[in-house]
Amino acid sequence: MINQIRSFLLERGIAVRQGPRFLRQQLPEILAKRIDVLSPRMIGIIEDLGGDWQRLDERIERVTEEIEQLAHGSESCRQLMTVPGIGPLIATAMVAAIANGAAFAKGRDFASHP
After folding, report:
1. How far is Cα 41 from Cα 67, in angstroms, rounded to an integer?
2. Which of 6, 15, 94, 105 has a CA-to-CA distance to 70 between 20 and 30 Å?
3. Closest to 29 (Cα-Cα) out of 16, 19, 13
4. At what angle do helices 20-33 and 40-72 cross, to 10 degrees?
C-alpha cells in the first residue's frame, strides 16, 4: 500500500521520503494542498489506499496481540523468549514447528520413526 501510494504521488511529481512514518505524516497535507497536480479522482484513490493501509495496520496489531498472548500463555514459549533475540513471534513459530523438541532428544533412533 505504501509503495503504491508513493508511486502515485511520484508520478505526479510529489516525492515523499522513504519510510511509513514520513508518508503517514505528510499524506493528509499533500492531499489537502496539492490539488494543483492531484485530480479529485486521484485524491480519492489515494485516500482509499490510505484507508486500506490503516485497516491492514489494525489487523496486524490484532494478530500481533494474539501471538503475544499465546506466547505468554505457553511455558515452552516463555522459556524460548529468555534467549536474547527471541520474541513472541519466533517463539510461537518454533513451538509450532518442533513442539517440545522430543524428536531431537539425545540417543533417539530416528531411522525407526518416520
Report:
1. 39
2. 105
3. 16
4. 150
d(CA 58, CA 43): 23
d(CA 11, CA 15): 9
How many Å is the maximal CA-CA distance in the chain? 73
C-alpha cell at 25: 505524516
Matching residue, cell 517440545: 100
The CA distance from 87 to 89, in Å, is: 6
Q: Residue 52: which residues within 8 A CB-CB, separation 6 or more? A: 1
pLDDT 10s digit of each residue in the chain, 114 long? 999 999 999 999 999 999 899 999 999 999 999 999 999 999 999 999 999 999 999 999 999 999 999 999 999 999 999 999 999 999 999 998 887 666 555 555 544 455
